[in-house]
């Protein structure tokens, strides 16, 4: 029965092709508007995510103590806190660090700077670093430098001020000069840099990692205070979640323990929420065109009922039920929406390719196209991205709009009394 109604609905639409094209045209415009506006937000979101950094940076959560407004005791970043962080579900690694309290880098007549952090060598693989030169391993007395450290040297005797002097960290002899806070004495230590880290796009590019025991020993000399495991705290603690999806839950669990959190993962979540809001707003703007198209579908179906009133009467006279009539007209309006949606999807794909090709072929400056806030090469010049699920959503939406627009006309057709319908001329 349903198959016969579908055949009849398709035949009825074919009887008025011009009207069908004009009615479906509104659905085409509305569907294309929804798809392209949402595709634009997806492309912008991917561009923003591409500029954030590596996937490791997105799962990193930096933990810091929260200062109490009432002056009460606050949780400290100590061994007890580190053990508590390891127990949180979704945590892949907890990496505590100790900062060298004072020191500068020297090579020949040049002076350089870089933050020196002590780390447990066993935790080094969890950082996800790649060696540009050398081998990533930490033995006592060794160090691993971020790639930008080599650009932080300068000649202090240069009258022009600070002018970067690139050095070869693996070949040039590097010394670490320490300063004693109490006596003002200095101490020079030969720095054995065994590797330079490949660019990460994060603060690791500006850091020298060393064994944590070495840094603690040098801090004792700098400050004159003996290291006490019972009261010692860490300067930095980074918690790494297993994946991006668990970052929010892990951050919340850390905050419940009384600590503050920050990181690219939290920033990405806020960014995603912004784009979701933008997607809804722009999608709603495109939906206005679909709403206008819905009135066109409803108007067309009402005219079809007036033109086929006698036909409806004959169908009822030979046994067609109200449900069959209702289904027939709903099928017709739904097919109008589906046809308009399908053409709208095709038109959107064509426009997407045209826009992306135009963006790719536009003259570019050093940072990309002048009027865009990002370099399109970060996302393969895909300013508009239409995923498969968006196509399915658009087709379902267009069909649903057609069916909704045909509800009242279909109900009117189903309620026509057979005798009056047959008398209609």
* DSSP E strands, number: 13
Which ranges are low-confidence, i.e. pLDDT below 50, for 5 or more consecutive residues?
A: 367-371
Task: Indicate the overall shape.
Answer: elongated
Number of helices: 12
Task: Kindly describe this structure.
This protein has 425 residues and is of the alpha+beta class. The chain has 2 domains: 2-53 and 270-423, no CATH class; 93-235, no CATH class. Helices cover 48% and strands 16% of the residues. It has 12 helices and 13 strands. The chain has helices at 2-14, 17-50, 55-58, 79-86, 212-223, 247-256, 264-307, 309-317, 322-361, 388-405, 407-414, 418-423, and strands spanning 60-65, 91-99, 104-107, 110-112, 115-119, 131-134, 142-145, 153-154, 174-179, 186-197, 207-211, 236-241, 259-262. Strands 1, 2, 3, 4, 5, 6, 7, 8, 9, 10, 11, 12 and 13 form a 13-stranded mixed β-sheet that branches. The model is unreliable at 367-371 (pLDDT under 50).
């Amino acid at each position: 029965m349903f198959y016969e109604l579908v055949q009849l609905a398709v035949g009825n639409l074919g009887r008025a092709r011009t009207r069908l094209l004009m009615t479906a045209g509104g659905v085409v415009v509305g569907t294309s508007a929804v798809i392209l506006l949402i595709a634009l937000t997806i492309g912008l979101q991917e561009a923003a995510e591409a500029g954030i950094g590596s996937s490791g940076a997105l799962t990193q959560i930096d933990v810091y103590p929260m200062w109490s407004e009432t002056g009460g005791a606050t949780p400290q970043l100590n061994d007890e806190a580190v053990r508590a962080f390891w127990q949180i579900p979704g945590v892949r690694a907890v990496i505590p660090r100790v900062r060298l309290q004072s020191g500068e880098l020297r090579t020949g007549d040049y002076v350089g700077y870089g933050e020196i952090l002590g780390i447990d060598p066993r935790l080094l693989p969890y950082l996800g670093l790649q060696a540009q030169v050398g081998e990533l391993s930490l033995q006592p007395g060794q160090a691993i430098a971020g790639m930008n450290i080599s650009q932080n040297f300068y000649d202090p005797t240069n009258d022009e001020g600070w002018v970067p002097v690139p050095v070869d960290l693996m070949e040039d002899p590097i010394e670490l000069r320490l300063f004693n806070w109490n006596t003002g004495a200095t101490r020079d230590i030969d720095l054995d840099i065994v590797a330079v880290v490949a660019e990460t796009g994060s603060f690791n590019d500006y850091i020298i990692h060393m064994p944590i025991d070495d840094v603690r020993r040098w801090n004792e000399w700098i400050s004159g205070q003996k290291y006490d495991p019972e009261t010692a705290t860490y300067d930095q603690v980074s918690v790494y979640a297993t994946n991006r999806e668990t970052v929010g839950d892990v951050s919340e669990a850390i905050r419940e323990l009384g600590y503050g959190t920050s990181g690219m993962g939290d920033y990405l979540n806020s960014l995603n929420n912004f784009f979701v809001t933008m997607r809804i707003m722009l999608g709603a703007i495109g939906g206005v065109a679909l709403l206008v198209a819905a009135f066109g579908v409803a108007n067309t179906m009402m005219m079809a009922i007036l033109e086929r009133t006698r036909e409806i009467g004959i169908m009822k006279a030979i046994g067609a039920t109200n449900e069959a009539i209702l289904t027939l007209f709903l099928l017709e309006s739904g097919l109008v929406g589906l046809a308009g949606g399908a053409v709208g999807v095709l038109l959107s794909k064509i426009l997407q390719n045209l826009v992306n090709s135009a963006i790719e072929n536009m003259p570019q400056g050093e940072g990309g196209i002048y009027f865009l806030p990002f370099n399109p090469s970060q996302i393969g010049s895909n300013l508009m991205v239409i995923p498969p699920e968006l196509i399915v959503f658009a087709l379902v939406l267009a069909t649903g709009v057609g069916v909704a627009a045909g509800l009242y006309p279909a109900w009117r057709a189903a309620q026509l009394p057979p005798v009056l319908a047959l008398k209609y001329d």
